[in-house]
Specification:
By secondary structure, the protein is α/β, with parallel strands linked by helices. The protein has 2 domains: 197 residues, Rossmann fold; 157 residues, Rossmann fold (3-Layer(aba) Sandwich), CATH 3.40.50. Helix content is 46%, strand content 13%. The protein has 19 helices and 14 strands. Strands 3-2-1-4-5-6 form a 6-stranded parallel β-sheet, with helices on both faces. A 6-stranded parallel β-sheet has the order 11-10-9-12-13-14. Helix 10 runs parallel beside helix 13 and helix 13 crosses helix 14. It is elongated and about 85 Å long. The chain starts with a strand and ends with a helix. The relative contact order is 0.08. The mean pLDDT is 96. Bound molecules: uridine-5'-diphosphate-xylopyranose (UDX). Its EC number is 1.1.1.22. Belongs to the UDP-glucose/GDP-mannose dehydrogenase family. Keywords: NAD, Oxidoreductase.
Length: 447
């Protein structure tokens, strides 16, 4: 298949490279000339494990190339994907579709022969209809069908997610789109990944419903974690205990400082807005959004409480700034609210992140950036783990304790168990570890 991917950002670049790896002929297009220049030179504008090699091998094989102008590639294409950004629109939480609409208009002028135009960006229900209308209006003679094919990949595991998806969802209104879409994903369904054909609007909604459900699942376990702290129970055992029930499933039940990233916050708010517009409000999702926002600030209060209510003038080491490990992405990262609230309370922050510091610096300009977890911890009254990078899983606790002003560990991702940190002389505060708190209090009462 001859495929064009409009937009060489996260989704576009990963999808384009993976489709080329399946053996298709792929041209990735982006208006950003500097980005295309970098890609042509073998550079990768985003951090994603394995992507550089994947791009390089497919470029070398002649299956993947990069262009700034879509005209010639679109004219020769069987399938044109729209993978441009759909950021949250300022003010009202709706998705900003201006890039999608602009791409549709440009594609329309370049079409030649029957072409399937596919929205891969996360777009609100009804966008496929709008794309169809725009293309038809811009080029009344064009022969095309518009399909929806949402992407479910996670940052940090994007290639694996693309190549071994739980399912592929394709929404079509015109039967002529079915065969080309089957051909695009043939290597996957031969591998037994189910391909689900639905109506176009259904497919658009599936993407939002999936992300909203996952955000809700995380938020549920986060609230249960708070309750665990109060009643003396352990949230990790609760997660395991409920997750072993097949109807619930074990994933996305890891309690933490709240979800962040480029998708969950944006998509939950866009879905809630759509639901309000159609007078069918999604109250569970509205509550999820509100709870998650409050939670990030509550995490700073947890740190302050661990330092007996006062952090003024104290140094606090923050380990992990990105919204999750294996990415340099800082969008909606819980660290942003936590660091801000701690700074407001008078603390001085030293932060370390394996990949996120360059992007963090302009967002958090008033803190110190350290070269290692140990450098961050020097003189600190507390060490706070905000993101569970593997590099933080086997820290030398004795070495940390020796250089800190007071040995307090606030582990917002439950990377450590209190037995080991307490054995190393730390005061340990985890998430939803009420069992440990209870034992600690009982020990203190006995003493
Ligand atoms: C998500 C979806 O998983 C993916 O299918 C969709 O295409 C895009 O949005 P991503 O944002 O890359 O992917 O990250 P994900 O791994 O889902 O994590 C999102 C946030 O939830 C992170 O802040 C993470 O720390 C948090 N999270 C996740 C938890 O707090 N607990 C969990 O159990 C899982």
């Amino acid at each position: 298949m001859r495929i064009v991917m409009i937009g060489s950002g996260y989704v576009g670049l990963v999808s384009g490279a993976c489709l080329a790896d399946f053996g298709h002929d792929v041209v990735c297009v982006d208006k950003d000339a500097a980005k295309i220049e970098k890609l042509r030179g073998g550079g990768i504008p985003i951090y994603e494990p394995g992507l550089e090699q994947l791009v390089a091998s497919n470029v070398a094989a002649g299956r993947l190339s990069f262009e700034t102008d879509l005209s010639a590639p679109v004219a020769g294409a069987d399938v044109v994907f729209i993978g441009v950004g759909t950021p949250a629109r300022r003010g009202d939480g709706h998705a900003d579709l201006s890039y999608v609409h602009a791409a549709a208009k440009e594609i329309a002028q370049a079409l030649s022969g029957f072409t399937v135009i596919v929205t891969k960006s996360t777009v609100p229900v009804g966008t496929g209809d709008e794309v169809e209308r725009i293309v038809r209006e811009a080029n009344p003679d064009a022969d095309f069908a518009v399909a929806s094919n949402p992407e479910f990949l996670r940052e940090g595991a994007a290639i694996e997610d693309f190549k071994r998806p739980d399912r592929i969802v394709v929404g079509i209104e015109d039967e002529r789109a079915r065969a080309p879409m089957e051909a695009v994903y043939r290597p996957l369904y031969l591998n037994r990944s189910p391909i689900l054909f639905t109506s176009r609007r259904t497919s658009e909604l599936i993407k939002y419903a999936a992300n909203a459900f996952l955000a809700m699942k995380i938020t549920f376990i986060n609230e249960i974690a708070d309750l665990c702290e109060k009643v003396g129970a352990d949230v990790q055992d609760v997660s395991r205990g409920i997750g072993l029930d097949n109807r619930i499933g074990p994933k996305f039940l890891h309690a933490g400082p709240g979800y962040g990233g480029s998708c969950f916050p944006k998509d939950t708010s866009a879905l809630a807005k759509t639901a309000q517009d159609f007078e069918s409000p999604l109250r569970l999702i509205e509550a999820t959004i509100a709870i998650n926002d409050t939670r990030k600030r509550a995490m700073a209060r947890k740190v302050i409480a661990a330092l007996d209510g006062d952090v003024r003038g104290k140094r606090i080491a923050v380990l992990g700034l990105t919204f999750k490990p294996n990415t340099d992405d800082m969008r909606e990262a819980p660290s942003l609210s936590i660091v801000q609230a701690l700074t407001d309370a008078g603390a001085r922050i030293s932060a370390y992140d394996p990949e996120g510091m360059e992007l963090a610096k302009p967002m958090l300009p008033d803190i110190d950036y350290a070269a290692s977890p140990y450098a961050a911890a020097e003189g600190a009254a507390a060490l706070v783990i905000v993101t569970e990078w593997d590099a933080f899983r086997a820290l030398d606790l004795k070495r940390l304790k020796a250089s800190m002003a007071s040995p307090v560990l606030v582990d917002l991702r439950n990377v450590y168990r209190e037995e080991e940190t307490e054995a190393a002389g730390f005061r340990h505060v985890g998430i939803g570890r009420g069992t440990a708190t209870l034992r600690h209090e009982m020990r203190q009462a006995a003493e």
